[in-house]
């Protein structure tokens, strides 16, 4: 009888308080990288494959709720309870820009072309900052129906995704008009939303379920867990293997890998 394979998790030490967000970079010529946000105020950068620590970004004065890397993993961004979003040089750790807000910033995301930074938080306002003109005032979209929990870019930066802390659903915004054009319904509030590198899929976590959405037709498939999830992600090396079919479902050869990966981020789960 063939022995069942058991996934052994990598444990990445370093943070002194709870980890609240993780972000994988796309695969770069130097590999891929993992950045983590924590209530200890210090985002950390790691090798995405081994988990080895690379560096710590120091400068926030409050809990860091969200973090991300640009497509080339050359810049990092972080959103904090100190009412600021910061952009960092991912090679040196130096702070490049600090964007002040009027309330807690809960989410941030670089555009696919790396020229824009999107932020959202307790102000119920989505802001878009031009990285080529960091001193210019940001563009503000229409008011969000609730406090913003997650943000992401879709459709070659023509669409923005957002979710709220106190209501279900993922809202799709037209970047040109700044208005909501569609809502993807969920039973619970969406705690994370991630777009695949090729833009074909959206991964969301709400309650104890992980949903994989077709990014154009918006049908989805669910993986249920016994945990209440804060974050659901797919390792960058696995996105190319993921396939959705409206009648057949998710490529079953990946089911064990996907479910196993969800448990690798159990440090983000509220028991």
From TrEMBL:
GO cellular component assignments: SMN complex
Membrane-traversing stretches: 218-239
Keyword field: Membrane, mRNA processing, mRNA splicing, Repeat, Transmembrane, Transmembrane helix, WD repeat
Repeat positions for WD: 57-98, 98-139
GO molecular function (one): RNA binding
Any single Pfam family the record assigns to this protein: WD40
GO biological process: spliceosomal snRNP assembly
Keyword Transmembrane: yes
SUPFAM superfamilies, alphabetized: WD40 repeat-like (SSF50978)
Signal peptide region: none
InterPro entries: WD40/YVTN_repeat-like_dom_sf (IPR015943), WD40_repeat_dom_sf (IPR036322), WD40_rpt (IPR001680)
The keyword Repeat is assigned to this record: yes
Family: Belongs to the WD repeat STRAP family.
PANTHER family tied to this protein: EUKARYOTIC TRANSLATION INITIATION FACTOR 3 SUBUNIT I, SERINE-THREONINE KINASE RECEPTOR-ASSOCIATED PROTEIN
Annotated protein name in UniProt: Serine-threonine kinase receptor-associated protein
């Amino acid at each position: 009888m063939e022995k069942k394979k058991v996934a052994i998790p990598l444990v990445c030490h370093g943070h002194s308080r709870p980890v609240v967000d993780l972000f994988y970079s796309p695969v770069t010529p130097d590999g891929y990288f993992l950045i983590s946000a924590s209530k200890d105020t210090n985002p950390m950068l790691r090798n995405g494959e081994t988990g080895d620590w690379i560096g710590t970004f120091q400068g926030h004065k409050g809990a860091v709720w969200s973090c991300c890397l640009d497509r080339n993993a050359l810049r990092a961004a972080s959103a904090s309870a100190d009412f600021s979003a910061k952009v960092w040089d991912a090679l040196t750790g130096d702070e490049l820009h600090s964007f002040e807000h009027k309330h807690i910033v809960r989410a941030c995301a670089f555009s696919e072309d790396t020229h824009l930074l999107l932020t959202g938080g307790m102000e119920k306002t989505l802001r878009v900052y031009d990285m080529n003109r960091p001193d210019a005032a940001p563009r503000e979209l229409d008011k969000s129906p609730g406090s913003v929990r997650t943000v992401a870019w879709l459709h070659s930066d023509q669409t923005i995704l957002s979710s709220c802390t106190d209501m279900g659903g993922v809202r799709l915004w037209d970047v040109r008009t700044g208005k909501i054009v569609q809502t993807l319904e969920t039973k619970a509030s969406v705690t994370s939303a991630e777009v695949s590198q090729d833009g074909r899929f959206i991964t969301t976590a709400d309650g104890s379920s992980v949903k994989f959405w077709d990014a154009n037709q918006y049908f989805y498939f669910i993986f249920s867990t016994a945990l209440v999830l804060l974050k659901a992600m797919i390792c960058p090396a696995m996105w190319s293997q993921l396939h959705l079919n409206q009648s057949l479902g998710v490529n079953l050869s990946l089911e064990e890998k996907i479910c196993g990966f969800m448990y690798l981020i159990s440090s983000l789960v509220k028991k």
